[in-house]
Design brief:
This protein is an alpha+beta fold and about 180 residues long. It contains 4 helices and 11 strands. A hairpin with a 6-residue loop joins strand 5 and strand 6. Helix 1 (about 1-10) packs parallel to helix 2 and helix 3 (about 105-120) packs parallel to helix 4 (about 135-150).
């Protein structure tokens, strides 16, 4: 499935990816470059969020937020790509949001940090990933950031996204792009 997706898409956003030799081989064979924001390492293999693209990134920054209860970090990777035949750049925020917290404050802080970086960007934006929006308060925090940045949620005709406690947890939001499904 990863090989099929890698060959047929220009950008991939992966969360909880184990950067094994096999994953690297699939991405390389598809002609994709990648950057990983490692959350942690097991047996010298990094695990985190990975953004892959056909274009060479011109800049990137990683953000890590520790889970308040488990203390395992969750990562976000913001990557900037040149837009072909344009002076604009595309900002891509690939997020694995914190999950295990009793209050929404730490969760909101993670998204506020992302919004702080993305608010400086004037071109198109993609924000996506495992946002762990399993409560109304978490969904509201994400909606607040989307409104602040002028993002719209991508709708799926055949919505097979992962759910937890009856709510979607995986999302894609965009600004300044035409969504073709």
């Amino acid at each position: 499935e990863l090989a099929r997706m890698a060959k047929s898409n220009d950008i991939l956003l992966l969360q909880e990816v184990t950067l094994s030799d096999g994953v690297q081989e699939v991405l390389h064979a598809a002609g994709l470059r990648w950057i990983l924001a490692s959350s942690f390492s097991i047996n010298d293999t990094d695990i985190g969020v990975l953004t892959a693209s056909r274009a060479v990134p011109i800049a990137s920054c990683a953000q890590r937020t520790p889970e308040p209860l488990l203390r395992l970090p969750k990562s976000a990777m913001i990557t900037w790509l040149r837009v072909k035949d344009s002076t604009e750049t595309l900002a891509i925020a690939n997020v694995h949001a914190i999950n295990f917290t009793l209050v929404v404050d730490d969760y909101r802080a993670q998204f506020d940090a992302l919004a702080g970086v993305l608010a400086l960007h004037r071109g198109p934006i993609i924000l996506g990933g495992d946002l762990n929006t399993w409560s109304e308060a978490r969904a509201a925090a994400v909606r607040d950031v989307a409104v602040k940045l002028g993002l719209v949620e991508v709708a799926y005709a055949d919505d097979r996204r992962s759910r937890f406690l009856g709510r979607q947890v995986d999302y894609v939001f965009v600004r300044g792009l035409e969504v073709i499904t």
